[in-house]
Amino acid sequence: MTEAAFDAEALEAARVLFAGEANFLMGAVAMDGLPDTDLPEVAFAGRSNVGKSSLINAVTGRLRLARFSNEPGRTREVNFFVIGDNQLRLVDLPGYGFARASKGVVKKFQNLGRDYLRGRPNLKRAFLLIDSRHGLKEVDEEAMAAFDLAAVSYQIILTKADKLKPAEVAEVTARTQAKIAKRPAAFPRVLATSSEKGTGIPELRAEIVQACAV
């Protein structure tokens, strides 16, 4: 199964939720600075230039809710966004790869992301973003292995699908699906998205709502 299967009612319910309030809550630089675990959370992870901020903005229908920069690796905090009337949180994790910072600084904020994934009991799903033009890289395989080891449910989200032809999107989706088939913590749907064109965004919203059961 390579496509998210949601009926019109589920897609509309998700649209309504994300059409409501969406606000930046806080950025945390240490585990003891995280908000309470009273709300369900979904986290966005991926390479530093994969388009996490753009995707979060597309999901929430905001232009600048999540900040993005031309300099990869600028996210050095775990950033929390509250959706709806305190119904769930979106979490933007520090990206991996290409960070223009000292090795010590890079290790510090990437370790924070890993600590969050391992120690957050209200985390319902992690979305691992993969650039559809490049597919899974070795560093992404390492991230998936870490998810599997931590028993954190994760779903592959292909980004920038508008940069490919439809047949190419179908091919990379199928190839990615095959690579995760035997991974214990991988969610069985791979979703292709485009923040620029809106492709897959309604389905991603529905995935979030389903994962958080709101």
Kindly describe this structure.
The protein is α/β, with parallel strands linked by helices and 214 residues long. The chain has a single domain (8-212), classed as 3-Layer(aba) Sandwich (Rossmann fold), CATH 3.40.50.300. The chain has six helices and seven strands, in the order αββαββαβαβαβα. The chain has helices spanning 8-19, 52-60, 103-119, 138-150, 166-180, 201-212, and strands at 22-28, 41-46, 78-83, 88-92, 123-131, 154-159, 191-192. It has a seven-stranded mixed sheet with strand order 1-3-4-2-5-6-7, sandwiched between helices. Strand 3 (78-83) and strand 4 form a beta hairpin. Helix 1 (8-19) packs across helix 6 (201-212). The chain is globular.
Structural class by sheet pairing and helices: alpha/beta
Computed Rg? 16 Å
Low-confidence stretches: 69-74, 98-109
Profile the largest sheet: 7 strands, mixed
The count of DSSP E runs of length 2 or more, i.e. the number of strands, is 7
In which range does the helix fraction lie? 25-40%
CATH architecture: 3-Layer(aba) Sandwich
Number of domains: 1
Strand content: 15-25%
Net shape: globular
Largest sheet strand order = 1-3-4-2-5-6-7
